[in-house]
Design goal:
With 226 residues, the protein is of the alpha/beta class. The chain is built from six helices and 14 strands. The protein binds nickel (II) ion (NI) and manganese (II) ion.
Length: 226
């Protein structure tokens, strides 16, 4: 499983020959807009945690080119289905076995309204089990006790957690979250994009290190292999 970071919560995941894009907000991101051409991204599926613009801005452009299937909660799926896109609706607690692995839509504490005011349902995150590697994409969320449910079913190899504070968890809560999900290997996301969520990288990494954990902060376009 290969995971590439495109800023904010935008990720490309390559698993079993399938290309997945998560929460594409790339063209409008001041950190990634001039570094990544969204017209060249491959996508069989687009996974959306919630409807906020910093997670869905480039969905229609990428899905329009790739004809990818958009996977999200029911309201978000219907929003895009009405616009003519391919969708797979899910809801919280449900799993589906896709050709690349199993995806579960799990709880997040946040909000989820589209930029045009449409109802984006309730926000979530994803647990993906594929290629003998399991990952948790928390999405935008507060620290929540529900995270403790995840390791009861799934032994995680990587937790992708927001760390920018203000709109989501910050560093200290993300460390607790990594305890809750029982995964010490963390990819930090949702930081630095706007002034509200700028972080001190060295301090963030030191805090995780002091807690016996590994925090990875990737450059735009940088990848890790699991
Ligand atoms: Ni959000
Ligand atoms: Mn966000």
């Amino acid at each position: 499983m290969k995971i590439t970071f495109y800023g904010q919560n935008s990720l490309a995941i390559s698993v079993s020959g399938t290309n997945i894009i998560v929460d594409p907000f790339i063209s409008g991101n001041p950190l990634s807009g001039d570094k990544v051409d969204i017209n060249t991204l491959k996508a069989d599926y687009i996974l959306l945690t919630h409807a906020h613009q910093d997670h869905v801005l480039d969905v229609e452009a990428i899905a329009g080119i790739t004809e990818a299937t958009i996977v999200s909660n029911y309201e978000i799926a219907m929003y895009y289905q009405e616009k003519g896109f391919n969708v797979h609706p899910m809801n919280h607690g449900g799993s589906w076995k896709f050709d690349f692995g199993t995806v579960k839509y799990v709880n997040a504490i946040h909000t989820s309204t589209f930029a045009d005011g449409s109802n984006g349902g309730a926000p979530g995150g994803f647990v993906i089990e594929g290629e003998h590697k399991n990952i948790y994409i928390a999405g935008d969320t507060a620290l929540t006790m529900d995270m403790k449910l995840i390791p009861m079913r799934t032994k995680l190899d990587l937790a992708i957690l927001p760390i920018g504070d203000n709109f989501t968890m910050g560093i200290d809560d993300a460390i607790i979250a990594s305890n809750f999900v029982e995964c010490d290997k963390v990819l930090g996301v949702h930081y630095d994009t706007f002034g509200y969520i700028e972080i001190d990288h060295d301090e963030a990494k030191r805090k995780f290190y002091d807690a016996g954990k590994d925090l990875m902060l990737l450059a735009i376009g940088e990848s890790i292999e699991l």
